[in-house]
Amino acid sequence: MDKYLLALLGEAGATGLAKGIYNVRKEERFKIAYENERSHWEYFKKYRRSVLEKPVFYLLYVVGVITALLGYKAIRYVVNKAESGALDFYLKNFEPMGEIGKIIEDEKHHFLP
Predict the structure, then answer these.
(1) What residues form the membrane-spanning segments (predicted)?
(2) What's the whole-model pTM score?
(3) pLDDT > 70 in the chain, percent
Protein backbone atom coordinates (compact mmCIF):
# COMPACT_ATOMS: atom_id res chain seq x y z
CA MET A 1 0.00 0.00 0.00
CA ASP A 2 1.11 3.54 -0.72
CA LYS A 3 3.00 5.16 2.18
CA TYR A 4 1.25 8.48 1.57
CA LEU A 5 -2.16 6.83 1.78
CA LEU A 6 -1.23 5.13 5.05
CA ALA A 7 0.14 8.41 6.44
CA LEU A 8 -3.02 10.24 5.32
CA LEU A 9 -5.34 7.76 7.00
CA GLY A 10 -3.13 7.60 10.09
CA GLU A 11 -3.22 11.37 10.48
CA ALA A 12 -6.97 11.44 9.86
CA GLY A 13 -7.36 8.92 12.67
CA ALA A 14 -4.94 10.73 14.95
CA THR A 15 -6.85 13.96 14.36
CA GLY A 16 -10.12 12.26 15.28
CA LEU A 17 -8.59 10.70 18.38
CA ALA A 18 -7.12 14.02 19.54
CA LYS A 19 -10.36 15.90 18.89
CA GLY A 20 -12.39 13.30 20.78
CA ILE A 21 -10.08 13.52 23.80
CA TYR A 22 -10.01 17.33 23.67
CA ASN A 23 -13.81 17.60 23.45
CA VAL A 24 -14.10 15.69 26.73
CA ARG A 25 -11.01 16.91 28.63
CA LYS A 26 -10.73 20.55 27.41
CA GLU A 27 -7.03 20.73 28.34
CA GLU A 28 -4.68 22.99 26.40
CA ARG A 29 -2.21 20.16 25.65
CA PHE A 30 -4.95 18.15 23.95
CA LYS A 31 -5.99 21.21 21.93
CA ILE A 32 -2.39 21.66 20.77
CA ALA A 33 -2.16 17.95 19.89
CA TYR A 34 -5.40 18.22 17.90
CA GLU A 35 -4.13 21.26 15.98
CA ASN A 36 -0.81 19.53 15.24
CA GLU A 37 -2.52 16.37 14.02
CA ARG A 38 -4.87 18.41 11.85
CA SER A 39 -1.92 20.22 10.24
CA HIS A 40 -0.23 16.85 9.58
CA TRP A 41 -3.44 15.59 7.96
CA GLU A 42 -3.56 18.71 5.77
CA TYR A 43 0.05 18.10 4.73
CA PHE A 44 -0.66 14.58 3.49
CA LYS A 45 -3.81 15.75 1.68
CA LYS A 46 -1.45 17.46 -0.77
CA TYR A 47 -0.13 14.07 -1.87
CA ARG A 48 -3.08 11.72 -1.58
CA ARG A 49 -6.84 11.75 -0.98
CA SER A 50 -9.15 8.91 -0.01
CA VAL A 51 -12.83 8.31 0.63
CA LEU A 52 -11.72 6.58 3.84
CA GLU A 53 -10.46 9.79 5.49
CA LYS A 54 -13.75 10.85 7.07
CA PRO A 55 -14.81 7.37 8.25
CA VAL A 56 -11.40 6.88 9.90
CA PHE A 57 -11.62 10.35 11.45
CA TYR A 58 -15.08 9.74 12.93
CA LEU A 59 -14.29 6.22 14.09
CA LEU A 60 -11.25 7.41 16.02
CA TYR A 61 -13.16 10.46 17.25
CA VAL A 62 -15.55 8.05 19.00
CA VAL A 63 -12.58 6.06 20.33
CA GLY A 64 -11.10 9.33 21.64
CA VAL A 65 -14.30 10.26 23.47
CA ILE A 66 -14.59 6.81 25.02
CA THR A 67 -10.91 6.81 25.97
CA ALA A 68 -11.20 10.24 27.60
CA LEU A 69 -14.22 9.09 29.61
CA LEU A 70 -12.22 6.10 30.89
CA GLY A 71 -9.63 8.37 32.49
CA TYR A 72 -6.07 9.56 32.24
CA LYS A 73 -4.45 6.10 32.34
CA ALA A 74 -6.51 5.04 29.34
CA ILE A 75 -5.65 8.27 27.51
CA ARG A 76 -1.95 7.80 28.20
CA TYR A 77 -2.03 4.18 27.03
CA VAL A 78 -3.92 4.87 23.78
CA VAL A 79 -2.00 8.05 22.89
CA ASN A 80 1.41 6.49 23.58
CA LYS A 81 0.52 3.41 21.49
CA ALA A 82 -0.71 5.56 18.61
CA GLU A 83 2.25 7.93 18.70
CA SER A 84 4.87 5.17 18.94
CA GLY A 85 3.29 3.48 15.92
CA ALA A 86 3.24 6.75 13.99
CA LEU A 87 6.84 7.51 14.88
CA ASP A 88 8.00 4.04 13.80
CA PHE A 89 6.06 4.37 10.53
CA TYR A 90 7.57 7.76 9.68
CA LEU A 91 11.11 6.72 10.53
CA LYS A 92 10.83 3.55 8.40
CA ASN A 93 9.12 5.11 5.38
CA PHE A 94 10.25 8.74 5.10
CA GLU A 95 13.43 10.75 5.29
CA PRO A 96 13.35 12.85 8.49
CA MET A 97 13.91 16.17 6.78
CA GLY A 98 11.81 19.19 5.90
CA GLU A 99 8.11 18.97 6.74
CA ILE A 100 8.36 15.26 7.60
CA GLY A 101 11.11 16.09 10.10
CA LYS A 102 8.79 18.64 11.72
CA ILE A 103 5.98 16.07 11.85
CA ILE A 104 8.33 13.56 13.51
CA GLU A 105 9.30 16.14 16.14
CA ASP A 106 5.63 16.96 16.78
CA GLU A 107 4.87 13.26 17.23
CA LYS A 108 7.65 12.97 19.83
CA HIS A 109 6.04 15.78 21.87
CA HIS A 110 2.64 14.07 21.97
CA PHE A 111 3.79 11.25 24.26
CA LEU A 112 2.22 11.45 27.72
CA PRO A 113 4.14 10.71 30.94
Answers:
(1) 56-75
(2) 0.91
(3) 99
